[in-house]
Structures are given as C-alpha cells and as structure tokens.
C-alpha cells in the first residue's frame, strides 16, 4: 500500500513533468488568494482607519452634563444645575477603570485680541491637559499646558488653526500674547487642523486654556454668566485687582464656620459646564457609563430612588452606525474573496479534468501495474491539493507585494493580517480537495483496458 | 510442475448495441510454470479479450480462472489490482513508459503500489540491478524520448520484472520494433525463460515471434483451436487446422 508521502512524491513528480501546465493551473489560485490577501489587508487597514476616524469624531467619548435645576416647579432645562465639579472629573479618572481620560470643561464665549486683530472664537474652553487626550488632538507646534499650569492658573493658552489665522495673519503665534477680557494669555501651542465636526462646526475655531485661568482670572467667580458676548465684555471695566490677580489663587475658598454649620456641602464649590470622558474603545462605553453613573450618584449623595442630578451622553448612535458600516465592508470583502476563490477552484477542476483525459494512458498503465482505484484517486486529489497549496503560497506572497505596492502608491492604510494568511492556506487546501475530487473520482473509475488503448 | 495458469470453460459476453456478443465461447487451457507459450490468433478471434482476462484486467462472464493457484474470476477490482502488481509483469506493444520520467523511475513504478516494497537506497539499487540485467546500466537517467525503441522495450521488460512476477505477459512485444531488435528482445525472453524459469505468455499474430515459444496456443472465433495444454501435441504452425 503506498503511503501518503509516496503518493505525494508521485503527484509532485507528475506535476513536474508538465511545469507549464501546472503553473498555469495554479495561476487561478494565485490570483484568487492574492486578491483575497490584498483585499483583506486593505480592508483591515481601512477598517482601522475608520475606527481612527470614529475616535477622532469622538465616538468613544462620553459627556457628563449637570442635571436640570428647578425652582417652584419651573425647570431651567438640562445643564442648568450646578452640580459637576473638577473634583468629579478627577474622581472619574481615578475610580472608573473603563475610563482612559476625563477632562472637566468650562465654556465661555469671549473676544480675543492681538494687536489690531480681534476675533470671537467658537469655543473658548477651559480644561485640563486631559482634554487633548479625550479629543485625541495633536499639536502642530509648541506644547500643551500641563497640570502645573492648571494648578497655578497660569495665563497660557493653546490656539486652534482658525484663530491663528484670524489673529496672526503673518503666522508665528508661539510666545505672543493675546488678550481675553483684558487678561493677557501667552500662546504656548498651536493645535493641528481637525476640520469641521459632523455637525458642520469648525472645530479649529478654538482656544484652550487651563480651566482655573478661565474661571478665576477671566470669567470671574461664577460661570453662570459665561454667555456674555463680545460687546459687553469689551465695554466692561475691570479693577486692577481683577486684571492682575495674585500669583497664587485660592481655588477652594475656605468656608466660614457659620456656613459650614448651615450647609454640609459647600455651595461655593467650583462647578464646570460638563466633563468629557474617553474610553479606550467604543465597546467600553456602556461599562464606563455604568461606572460613572454609580460613582457620581455616590459622590453627589443621591439616595436610592432619587433622580440623577447629571446626565451622561455619548455618540452611541453614530458609533453603532459606523460599526455596522465597517462590518458590512468586511462581509462584502469576504464575499468577493469567496467568489474569486471559487473561480480559481473551477479553474483547477477544469485543468484537472483535462489532465485526467490527457493522461488516460498513464492512468491505465498505473492500473495495469497494480494501482488500485483508491491509489489513482489519492494521486489526483493530492495533485490538486499540491497545486492549490503552491498557488496559495505564491498568492500570499503576491498579495503581500500588492498590499505594499498599494500602500506606497496610494498611501492607503494596510495591515498585515495573520488570520488571512492562515485562512488562505486552509482555504486553498479545501479548494484543492473540493474541486480535485470529481476529476480524481473520474480517473479512478477508468477501465484499465480502455485507458491503455486510449489514443 | 504446478500450473501457473489454469482456465476452464471461460465465456465472455459483451453487450454491443443492446445485443449480447459472445467473444469467448468456452475456453480452457493450462500453462505450467517455466513454460514459454505463444498465444496466436487473427484479429477478432478473441485473443485480446483472453489476454485481458489472463492479465487480470478483465473478468470472465462465466468460468474459472486460477492464477498461481488463486481463483481470480470472483475477485474485486482492488484485489485484482494487487494480483497484477504481485504476480504479473506486463510488456506492451507500445512500451507504455511514462514520458519525461527517467528509465530508473519508470522501472521502479510498480513498486510504488507494492506491499512492503523497499525504500530509498535499497529501492534504487534494485532498479539499477534490473536495468543492468537488460543491458541499460548506463542509461539510468535517460528519458524514454532519448532511448531507441529496443531500449525502451528493454526498460519496459525491466519494469515488468521488478516485482519478481510469476507470469510475464507480453502483448505484441515486437510489434513496434524492427526485425533485428525484435530478435534481441525475443532472445532476452528466451534467456529469462531458460535461466530463471520465468513463465512467459507471448501474445502475437506473427508466426516468426511464436516460433520462439515452446508451445503455441491458437485461438479462433472465441475457441481454442490447438495447444490448450502441454499434454496435447502442439500442431505444427504451418499446417492449417481445418485441413484434416
């Protein structure tokens, strides 16, 4: 009884007797596997790019808003309560394992001035360095402000590209000083361009500064009046004490003994407009939401049954839609890949059938010399598998080359996919067995007498 | 001496266009071990059909066929393949060597399907020995296209002998060879018969070829005309059977 190895040796010898035909036969599989590999890798690359875009858009971020304040049955709407504090943001990043960054946000809309140029940025954001992590924002030049800048309420800011263009037509904003409400801010960094967000707002029209600076040096002690417009702010006069405050700010003013006795929670707690939170991936969003919910309920001393005094919102709908798009794309690629492999397999079957007809006499001779039908069948199936595996190996090579070419020519993102390579090998073996079976069966059923006489 | 081939009342019927055609109409013959027998007959006599049955390539419709003491007529396809591999060496008119394959590999082909065949260097040694025996020790790595007709047939003979068969079945072995080479090949058969007592069945229609055999079996219209066994006196090849 011939072993599998000896049959394989016989098959390889038979294939080597006609190298051109063998090569042409494998071409179908080579092209099929190569296109699969290239497409899967391009697909994974673009899928990664889509994920990156989603991240950029903020799909893996949550925003915690304060709840609605109401007085005598009159609600002031969402965000009107003054319940969120920078300490909440610090607690979220400390106590919620699913959260990768949390930044307290203080908003304002004020005029900025440099020399003869002035501008009212869309976003004047007071925050912590975590803001840049949450928004996944990179620097174009300069540096971000750091935690020391926040602690000392340093008069520094980071500008978006739009504001640089508005205030510094000649460029070079680094180290220059801009004025906000007469408060000078040194420009220490310029953000990379991000473009419009999905609602069409220019995200680059932004000034980011330490929240302490915005809250205590610029907006004054309360943030309830942060919607001042440029007209009023430019006419307001400030006392020298406000313009040039002490170097060290007392962030949390001491409560008097009477106050402390009256109110267990200090009412002068510094509040923030919202807290932006990011998670490592959009999959962690529900978990992070639950953790933040539990933490804030505890921190805000809410009893069971009492409604939340805050709201957590995410871009869940968008992230779901984009996730679906990505999955659809993968399915589509898989479908195309399967079709090309089936085409390659039919090519193998076709050539194997031709080969069986062409080698009828060889088959007859082998049978006369003692080959059993099973031996003949094994030989032809192994020939088909060898062809497919050889084609698969070459196809993987060509696919990788194609990916590299595409990457260097079009700068499309490409990721090497190990499962695709392993899968391609298995699939080519499977194609070999499936499409080699019928020709091999046909060969094994030949009558040796007829086969020997075949011309 | 024991009989290598023992055939009794073999009938072979083919279905041709719906109507049965009897090609062999009850053939009986015996061939003893060490005999060199020629099977002669005109085309259409049933010679080829009988040869296919004797070579275990086909099965009789009815009757008994014992090869080396084993009943063949009831065997399955797989069993017959094994019998062909172990007991029979085939030599064909058109050599039937695998193209683009060396002489040595062609010779070793039957061992690929044999039980307990040697492997590696031992296998190669056996093939080299066989080729040396037929005088082609210096042509081991030649392809059939690089060999003359006579050399190709000698490769085929080496291939037939590699499994130490009980029966060498040669179907018109000289049909594609010129007279001088034919003589060489037939002399080689005689030597094998004399020196190794190999049982040889030559299937031919040429009386010059049949002359080299010790006995001639003649078949005509599906029946044995003469020479069915050693005990029966062989009819002289020149006398027509219908003459008496």
* Domain unit count of chain A: 2
Instruction: Write down the domain tally of chain B.
Output: 1
CATH superfamily membership of chain B? P-loop containing nucleotide triphosphate hydrolases
Q: Specify the overall morphology of chain A.
A: elongated
Q: Rg of chain B to the nearest angstrom?
A: 18 Å
Compact summary:
The complex is a heterodimer of chains A (455) and B (244). By secondary structure, chain A is of the alpha+beta class.
Tell me about this structure:
The complex is a heterodimer of chains A (455) and B (244). Chain A is α+β, with helices and mostly antiparallel strands. Chain A has two domains: 4-54 and 322-453, no CATH class; 61-314, no CATH class. Helices cover 53% and strands 14% of the residues of chain A. In chain A, the strands form two sheets. In chain A, strands 1, 4, 5, 6, 7, 8, 9, 10, 11, 12, 13 and 14 form a twelve-stranded mixed beta sheet that branches. In chain A, strands 2-3 form a two-stranded antiparallel ribbon. In chain A, a hairpin with a 2-residue loop joins strand 2 and strand 3. The longest helix of chain A is centred in the last third of the chain and has 43 residues, at 316-358. The model of chain A is unreliable at 221-236 (pLDDT under 50). With 244 residues, chain B is α/β, with parallel strands linked by helices. Chain B has one domain: Rossmann fold (3-Layer(aba) Sandwich). In chain B, the strands form two sheets. Chain B has a six-stranded mixed beta sheet. Chain B is globular and about 50 Å long. Chain B starts with a strand and ends in an 18-residue tail after the last strand. The relative contact order of chain B is 0.19. Residues 232-244 of chain B have low confidence and may be disordered. Classes of the chains: A alpha+beta (455), B alpha/beta (244). The interface between A and B is medium-sized, with 23 and 27 residues.
């Amino acid at each position: 009884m011939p072993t599998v190895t000896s049959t394989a040796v016989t098959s390889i010898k038979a294939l080597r007797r006609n190298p051109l035909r063998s090569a042409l036969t494998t071409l179908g599989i080579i092209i099929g596997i190569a296109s699969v590999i290239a497409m899967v890798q391009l697909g994974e690359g673009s899928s990664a790019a889509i994920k990156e875009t989603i991240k950029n858009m903020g799909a893996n971020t949550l925003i915690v808003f304060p709840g609605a304040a109401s007085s005598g049955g009159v609600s002031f709407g969402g965000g009107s309560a003054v319940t969120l504090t920078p300490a909440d943001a610090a607690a979220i990043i400390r106590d919620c394992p699913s959260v990768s960054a949390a930044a307290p946000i203080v908003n304002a809309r004020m005029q900025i001035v440099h020399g003869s140029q002035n501008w009212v940025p869309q976003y004047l954001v007071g925050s912590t360095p975590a803001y840049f992590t949450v928004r996944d924002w990179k620097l174009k030049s300069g540096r971000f402000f750091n935690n020391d800048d926040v602690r000392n309420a340093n008069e520094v800011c980071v500008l978006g590209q739009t504001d640089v263009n508005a205030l510094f037509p000649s460029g070079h904003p680094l180290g220059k000083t801009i004025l906000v409400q007469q408060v000078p801010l040194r420009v220490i960094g310029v953000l990379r361009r991000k473009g419009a967000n999905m609602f069409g707002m220019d995200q680059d029209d932004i000034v980011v500064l330490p929240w302490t600076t915005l809250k205590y040096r610029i907006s004054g002690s309360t943030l309830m009046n942060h919607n001042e417009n440029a007209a009023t702010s430019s006419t307001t006069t400030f006392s020298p004490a406000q313009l040039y405050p002490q170097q060290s700010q007392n962030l949390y003013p001491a409560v008097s003994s009477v106050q402390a006795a009256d109110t267990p929670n200090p009412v002068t707690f510094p509040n923030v407009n919202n807290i932006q939170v990011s998670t490592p991936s959009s999959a962690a969003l529900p978990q992070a939401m639950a953790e933040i919910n539990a933490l804030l309920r505890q921190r805000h001393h809410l009893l069971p049954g009492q409604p939340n005094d805050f709201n957590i919102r995410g871009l869940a709908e968008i992230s779901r839609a984009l996730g679906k798009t990505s999955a659809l794309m993968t399915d589509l690629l898989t479908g195309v890949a399967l079709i090309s492999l089936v085409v390659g397999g039919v090519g193998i079957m076709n050539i194997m059938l031709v080969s069986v007809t062409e080698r009828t006499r060889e088959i007859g001779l082998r049978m006369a010399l003692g080959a059993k039908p099973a031996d003949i069948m094994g030989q032809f199936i192994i020939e088909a598998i060898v062809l497919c595996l050889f084609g698969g190996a070459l196809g993987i090579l060509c696919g990788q080359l194609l990916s590299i070419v595409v990457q260097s020519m079009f700068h499309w993102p490409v990721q090497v996919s190990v499962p695709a390579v392993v899968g391609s090998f298995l699939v080519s073996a499977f194609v070999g067995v499936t499409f080699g079976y019928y020709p091999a069966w046909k060969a094994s059923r030949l009558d040796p007498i007829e086969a020997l006489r075949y011309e | 001496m024991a009989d290598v081939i023992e055939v009794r009342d073999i009938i072979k019927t083919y279905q041709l266009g719906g109507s049965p055609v009897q090609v062999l109409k009850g053939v009986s013959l015996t061939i003893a071990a060490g005999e060199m027998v020629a099977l002669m007959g005109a085309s259409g006599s049933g010679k080829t059909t009988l040869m296919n049955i004797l070579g275990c390539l086909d099965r009789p419709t009815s009757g008994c066929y014992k090869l080396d003491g084993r009943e063949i007529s009831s065997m399955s396809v797989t069993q017959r393949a094994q019998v062909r591999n172990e007991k029979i060496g085939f030599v064909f008119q058109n050599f039937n060597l695998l193209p683009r394959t060396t002489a040595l590999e062609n010779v070793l082909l039957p061992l690929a399907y044999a039980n307990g065949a040697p492997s590696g260097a031992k296998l190669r040694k056996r093939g080299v020995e066989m080729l040396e025996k037929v005088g082609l020790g210096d042509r081991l790595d030649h392809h059939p296209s690089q060999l003359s007709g006579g050399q190709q047939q000698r490769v085929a003979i080496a291939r037939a002998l590699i499994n130490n068969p009980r029966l060498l079945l040669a179907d018109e072995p000289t049909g594609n060879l010129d007279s001088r080479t034919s003589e060489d090949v037939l002399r080689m058969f005689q030597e094998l018969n004399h020196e190794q007592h190999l049982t040889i069945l030559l299937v031919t229609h040429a009386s010059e070829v049949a002359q080299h055999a010790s006995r001639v079996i003649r078949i005509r219209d599906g029946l044995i005309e003469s020479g069915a066994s050693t005990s029966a006196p062989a009819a002289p090849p020149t006398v027509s059977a219908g003459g008496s």
